[in-house]
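[SOLVED] Need 3D model of a two-part complex

Original post:
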Amino acid sequence: MPEYYLALAALLFCIGLVGAVSRRNLFVIYMSIELMLNAINLMLATFARAQNDHGGTVMALLLIAVIASEAAVFLSMIITLFRTNRTIDADFFTNLSQEQNP
Amino acid sequence: MIEQGIFWILTLFLVGGSLGMITSRHSVFASANFMLAMIALSGIFALLNQSFLFLAQILVAVGAVITLALLVIVSVNIHQRYTPDEPNMRRWLAGVSLLVLPFFVLLINTAGKMPISFKDVPAEFGTVRGVGATLFSDWVLPFELVSILLLVAMLAAIIISRRGGDHDA
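Solution:
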């Protein structure tokens, strides 16, 4: 039975990876990153249950706090980017990848 | 086996919600699908006897993080013309899925060969008492570091999203 939970965590991580790479909407990219972090959470909870050890549970709890801080910073970044550029298209923000500003 | 049935139902909601999240064109639908997936994930935590983690997931991930994301999506009130139209979205999704597939097969193989199994749980496993005893004995330093991280992230969110903050910084 633990294999099913680990396989589910792997599937969630891969779905999040696909979403973060292939989408251009900043909100969807944000939620894909969060999905990957939650897949790690599920893996930690599964290992804690299999070993009957609370260490994995505590790590998952701390990871939930990290997810909350990531959400606060990412969402305020999205607000600032939308306010200054009037878009949430990830392909618009290419200043760092070009030699000079367009 | 009733536990297995609950697991498959929750898996259906979890995977369906995640797939709906990365394929939907509207931000609000994406976050609603993601909320469904996170509620199903907290149910999976409950299946793993992690009652404290289940509570924390419901309170923080569903109640705070996704609600905050929904609030931001609604309050910046993005008109449809400001969101990317992504004409080749399905082609991109299919191509990147093909690229990620070998990695996924590798992960599945590793998970299948893992020599672990679920044993009988002690009575205290996953409860607030048991988790709290471990958290405040072996994990005190990471706990304090995470509290500093939360404080810094809160300050950063205020400073970044301040009006005109990027000009006079």
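Edit: The two ends of chain A are 55 Å apart (CA to CA).
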